[in-house]
Amino acid sequence: MKVAIVGGGVSGLVAAHLLHPEHDVTVFEAAAYAGGHTNTVEVRTPRGPLAIDTGFIVFNDRNYPRFQALLAELGVASQPSEMSFGVSDGDFEYASTSANGLYAKRSHLLSPAFQRMVADVPRFQRHARELLSSASEPSLREWLAMLGLSDAFVERVIVPQAAAVWSADPDQMWTFPARFLVDSSTTTGCSACAGGPAGARSAAAPGATSRR
């Protein structure tokens, strides 16, 4: 059977990999390279070229059994990885790695807005669990408005988190279902929002890169 697959991201490539032994498969991709938002970009530094992987390049043991099986089949190694989240924007900076990372900018210790942002994290996590157990399907904008979270939390946690998970323009994500963000954060194990599972790992074949 002749099969056409539109899109050369991970879904399209895995589908092609599984179908090609028994079918005539053609993959159509608009970009000049395969891999979707997962791509290795070479950056020149004073110490020499540095290969930087873009996209969301981690997984965890509990939620990705089929992906782990695929990596094993392809002979791609993995290694333990810290699943944390950080934001750096001019003079505003924090990381979820530790209290020292959270207050990387010491003036945040005295900032009511920053303290409110931090206090909103467990509130968000609680409401996220409630959303996943309900049948409600609000948009991200509608859901956040109902929760009454601070502007600092929305702009400094939700917006960069959603942009990273979805590789999306922040201006376009407000109409997305809120469940997508919560489910993605839980599945990937990103502790910044949903408090997902531990055991994060990153995958890389030794010495290999994804080239355009």
Write the layout of secondary structure elements.
Elements: E1 2-6, H1 10-19, E2 24-28, E3 40-45, E4 48-53, E5 58-60, H2 65-74, E6 78-80, E7 86-89, E8 92-95, H3 99-102, H4 112-132, H5 140-147, H6 151-166, H7 178-188, E9 200-203
Parallel strand pairs: 1-2
Antiparallel strand pairs: 3-4, 5-9, 6-9, 7-8
Give the biggest beta sheet: 3 strands, antiparallel
Assembly type of the shown chains? single chain
> In one word, what is the shape?
globular
Pattern of helices and strands: EHEEEEHEEEHHHHHE
Coarse structural class: alpha+beta
What key attributes describe this structure?
alpha+beta, three-stranded antiparallel beta sheet, two-stranded parallel ribbon, 38% helix
Tell me what you see in this structure:
- There is one protein chain.
- This protein is an alpha+beta fold and 212 residues long.
- Among the domains are: 36 residues, no CATH class; 99 residues, no CATH class.
- It is built from 7 helices and 9 strands; from the N terminus they run βαββββαβββαααααβ.
- Strands 5-9-6 form a 3-stranded antiparallel β-sheet, with no helix packed on it. The protein has a two-stranded parallel ribbon with strand order 1-2.
- Strand 3 and strand 4 form a beta hairpin.
- Helix 4 packs across helix 6.
- The chain is globular.
- The chain starts with a strand and ends in a 9-residue tail after the last strand.
- About 3% of the residues have low confidence.
Would you summarize the structure shown here?
The protein has 212 residues and is of the alpha+beta class.
